[in-house]
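Chain entry —
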Amino acid sequence: MYSPVWWTPDFLTQFKARRGYDFDEYLPFIFNGENTWGTISAPYGERTYLGAGSDGGEGANNDYRSTLTELNQRYIAHMEDWTHGLNLQFSNQPAYNLPLDLVG
């Protein structure tokens, strides 16, 4: 089964440190079409919504994507430092079909 979201073992810890709240209760909100990779959608047609007067989980979803972007930037910086230390060049294609901020 393809996963429509990206994850790392340390993601929840990093999320709380960067955003100031636990992400656990918002997990259902990230399983949606905006967070798919390579146009692969979740194998189910379910969506999760908050009650009336809320942002529908969009704030947590935006925080999820911001955290992913920041962690991806950290990864890219590490790879650049490592390869440059070996006298090599590093190139990648960040955010291609990923729920990341391409400009970031």
